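dumping this here so i dont lose it
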């Protein structure tokens, strides 16, 4: 299972700390690693600044930046293939994801 299309610009929604923290409560679909699902939801729904804040919280909570999807790919591997994923890829690497 891979993300279907490249990152699109996120507009309009304000992400305060409570909103960023709320992303940790999402439940994954059956058969999808929880940590990967949380990372994917954040990537899909946040601007880069909010995503960086989310990654700090994600790590502090003890979640795995290198979690894999059902196909065995990490979010970093997927994001690196996206034309508009460069800043998100850098944020994942800076947070400690394996490149």
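and the seq i came up w/
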């Amino acid at each position: 299972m891979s993300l279907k299309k490249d990152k699109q610009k996120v507009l309009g929604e304000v992400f305060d700390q409570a909103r960023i923290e709320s992303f940790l409560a999402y439940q994954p679909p059956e058969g999808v690693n929880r940590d990967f699902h949380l990372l994917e939801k954040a990537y899909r729904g946040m601007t880069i600044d909010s995503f960086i804040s989310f990654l700090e919280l994600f790590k502090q909570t003890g979640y795995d930046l290198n979690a894999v999807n059902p196909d065995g790919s990490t979010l970093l591997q997927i994001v690196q293939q996206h034309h508009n994923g460069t800043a998100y890829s850098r944020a994942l690497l800076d947070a400690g994801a394996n490149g």
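The radius of gyration is 12 Å.
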